[in-house]
C-alpha cells in the first residue's frame, strides 16, 4: 500500500519535471531523462527474455532494424513513422523468429544461444555498414528534416513533447511487463526455465511460449529503437547495433535487477546518470573514463551483488517467493 | 558367505551426519563405521540417499552437521582432492570415466596424486593383473568399452591412487546379470588384496554374498544394520527391495 | 565483383584470397584454441579473451616501436603478459563467480571487456598503432603474399603442434583434457580443481600472447581491436563445438576462407556477414557445432 502511494507520488514528480523552472539546465535535464525513459523501455523489453533464461547479447539487431526501417522509409519514401513503426516492428519480429525458431527447435540454449544472438547482432550491424549506398554505412543516416514541429514526421525541437512521449512509452513497457508477469504464460515460462522436459510433459507448449516472449521482446525493442531514432534524428550502426550497445542493455538490467518490474529502469537510470556525471566531471579530456568505471562497476556488481541493486534492496524489504528459481539458468 | 580377514581397527567413522542439497535434506543423523579389511554394504530403495552418503565421505558434498573421521583423522568438510590423498577412493555412480581418453590415460589420471605417481608402474601392473581385458584394450577410448569393461576400468582407476578404502557406488548398474556375477567376483579379488570396501548397491542378494556387514538406508536414515549372513534370511532383504 | 565473376575472370585473385584466408586462419585458430581450452575446462566463455591479446599487442608495440627492443624480445614480453593476464583474470574475476548463473558469468567478462577497451582508449587514444617492420612481399606464380603473414602462419602451426603435444603427452595436459570431459571426476582423482584451472588459464593466456605477437606484425592495434576479432573468434569456437579443439581448428579455416574470399568478391563487411550468416545457419543444422557427437 505504501509502495503504491510512493510510486504514484514519484510518478507525479517525474511528470512535472518539464514544468519546473531550471534556468539554462532544463534542456539538458530533459535530454537525459528522455534517454532514461527510452533505454529503460528497451531494457525492460530485454528483460522479458532474460528473466526466463533466454539471454540475448544481440538485441542491438532489433534496435538497428527498428530505427533504420522507419528512418529509411521516411527519408526515401516520405512514409510517416506512425505507419513505418509497424513495418519496423514486423521486420524485427521476423528477424527474431528466423533466429529463435530454429534455436527453439534444436534446443540451442545457454552459451550457444547467447553467442548466436551475438552473431545476429553483428550480422545486422555489418549489413548496415556494407549497404552503405543507402544506409550511409559507418557514417550513419540523418532523419530528413520535417521542420520544427511535425506530427507526421514525429519531429519536434521542443524537447517537452518527446519528454511526455517517452514517458508514455516507458509506462507502456512497464504495463506490458506487468501483464506478462501476471498471466498464465509466466507460470509456464518459469516451469520451462526450471525443467523443459517436465513442463513439456505437462502439456505446456514450450516452443510457443519461448517464441512468443522472444517476438514480444524483439518487437518492443524495435519500437524503442524507433523512438530513439525519432528523438535523436540520427541513426548509426555502431550506436544501435554494436556489441557494446547490446552488452550495455544487459548490463543496465542486471545492475538494476532482472526479475523485478522497475529493475531495468533503476539500472538504466543509474548507468545513464553515472555516464553523464562522468562526462560532465571529466570533460572531453578523459575520453573513455566513463566506460572504464562502467566496466569496473559491472564486474564488481556481478561479483558482489548478483541480484542487482534494486533486486537486492527489494529482497531486504519484501519477503517474496524466490524468483531465482528461474535464475538457475540452464546452460 | 562372507569371506575375508577378521575386522581390524576402525577405519572410517561417521557420526550424526546430516547432509543434502540446498533446502532438501537427503541424510538425517547417519552413523556408520567401517573397520580395516572389512567389506560393508549400504542398501536401500531408490532415493534413500545412498549416493549422497558416498559423496559426503569422498568430500564432494560437505555435511551440514556431524563428523567424519578416517583412521582417526577428522575429515569433515574437507574437499574431495584432499580426501583422496588420505586414502579414500570413490568409484562414482555411472562410472564417470573420461570417455575421450584411452584406457591407459584414464588409469594415468587415477594416479594423479604425487604419492601415487611414484608407484605408477607397480600400480598399473596390479590393475592389469586383476583385469587382463584392460591391458588388451589399453589404447582404446574409454567411451567405446562395454559396460562391464567400463566398470572394471572405473575400479582400476580408483586403485591407481593406492587407496586404503574404496567406495563403490552402484557397481552393478546397467550390467547384464552374467556380468554382475563376474564383477562381484572381481570385487572379491580386490578385497582379497587387502583393500577395505564400502559398497552401495541395489542388488541386495548379490551384495550380501560379498560383504561382512550391511546397513539399510531408508529415506535418509539408517534403519537396520547387522552381519551379512544373519541379514540374508531376515526381513532385511525384503525391506530393502521395497520401493524398487 | 561477384564470386562467379572472380572465378571466371580473375582466378588468380581468387587463389590469392584463398591463400591469404589460409594464412589468416592459422592465427584465428590460435585464438579459438585458447578460448576453447578455457571454455572446455571451466565452462565459462571469456568474452574478453581477444581484448587480452590486444593488451599484449600494445605491450609489444611499446617495447619494440617506442623503446626499440628487438622484435623477439618484445614478443616474449607479450607472451609473458598473456600468461599473467590469464592467471589474473582467473584469480580475480572467474574464481568468485565460478558457480554463478551463466548470464552473470558472461556479464562479468563483458564488464571486464568494457573496462579494458575504455581504459585503453583513455591511456592510448583510439589511434591505430603499428609496429613498423620492413618485411618483404613475396610472389608465388602471380599471387602476392606478405612475408609477415607467412611467418605468422608457420609459427601458429608450430604452436598448435606444441599445444597438441602438451595436451596429449604431459600429465597436466591430459588432466586438462580429462577435466573438460568430466569436471567433477578429476577431483576424485586427487587433483585440486583450482590448480588445473590456473594452468588452463595460464596456457590460454599464453596462446593469446602468441596470437598477439603474430597479429601485431600484420595489423595495427587500437582499443577496439577486440571488437573486430572477438565475435569471429566466438563464432569459430561455437561452430567447431564449444570445447572441441579439433573442431575449432577446422572451423577457423572455414571462417577465414569465407571472410577472405567474400572480402574480395564483395566487400570486407560482406565477407563477415556471409561468415556470420553461415554460422547461424550451421548452428541450426548442427546445434552442437559441426563436429558435435550425437547426444
Describe it for me?
The complex is a heterotrimer of chains A (331), B (244) and C (295). Chain A is mainly alpha-helical and 331 residues long. Chain A has one domain (26-325): ABC transporter involved in vitamin B12 uptake, BtuC. Chain A is built from 15 helices and four strands. Chain A has a two-stranded antiparallel sheet. A two-stranded antiparallel sheet of chain A has the order 2-3. Chain B has a single domain (38-60, 79-241), classed as P-loop containing nucleotide triphosphate hydrolases (Rossmann fold, 3-Layer(aba) Sandwich). In chain B, a hairpin with a 2-residue loop joins strand 9 (213-218) and strand 10 (221-227). Chain B is globular, with a radius of gyration of 17 Å. Residues 1-6 of chain B have low confidence and may be disordered. Chain C contains twelve helices and two strands. In chain C, a hairpin with a 2-residue loop joins strand 1 (137-140) and strand 2. The radius of gyration of chain C is 19 Å and the shape is globular. Classes of the chains: A mainly alpha (331), B alpha/beta (244), C mainly alpha (295). At the B-C interface, helix 2 and helix 3 of B face helix 7 and helix 8 of C.
What is the structure about, briefly put?
The complex is a heterotrimer of chains A (331), B (244) and C (295). Chain A has 331 residues and is an all-alpha fold.
Give the distance, in angstroms, between the N- and C-terminal Cα atoms of chain B. 24 Å
Which fold does the CATH topology of chain B refer to? Answer: Rossmann fold
> Which range does the strand content of chain A fall in?
under 5%
What assembly state would you assign to the polypeptide chains in this entry? heterotrimer
The largest sheet of chain B has its strands arranged as 6-7-8-3-9-10
Q: Return the domain count of chain A.
A: 1
Task: Specify the overall morphology of chain A.
Answer: globular
Average per-residue pLDDT of chain A, rounded, comes to 81
Note the topology.
The complex is a heterotrimer of chains A (331), B (244) and C (295).
Chain A (H helix, E strand, L loop, with lengths): L1 H15 L9 H25 L9 H18 L3 H25 L4 H21 L1 H4 L5 E2 L6 E2 L4 E2 L2 H24 L1 H11 L1 H6 L4 H27 L1 E2 L1 H5 L1 H14 L6 H20 L6 H16 L4 H9 L14
Antiparallel strand pairs in A: 1-4, 2-3
Helix pairs in contact in A: 2-7, 2-10, 2-12, 2-13, 3-4, 3-5, 3-10, 4-10, 7-10, 12-13, 13-14
Chain B lengths: L9 E12 L2 E12 L3 E5 L6 H9 L6 E6 L2 E2 L5 H7 L1 E4 L11 H8 L3 H5 L1 H11 L1 H5 L10 H13 L5 E5 L7 H16 L3 E6 L2 H7 L2 E6 L2 E7 H4 L3 H7 L3
Helix pairs in contact in B: 3-7
Chain C lengths: L2 H7 L1 H32 L6 H18 L4 H24 L7 H23 L12 E4 L2 E4 H23 L1 H11 L1 H5 L5 H24 L8 H16 L4 H21 L2 H18 L10
Antiparallel strand pairs in C: 1-2
Helix pairs in contact in C: 1-2, 2-6, 2-7, 2-9, 2-10, 2-11, 3-4, 3-5, 3-9, 3-10, 4-9, 6-7, 6-9, 7-9, 10-11, 10-12, 11-12
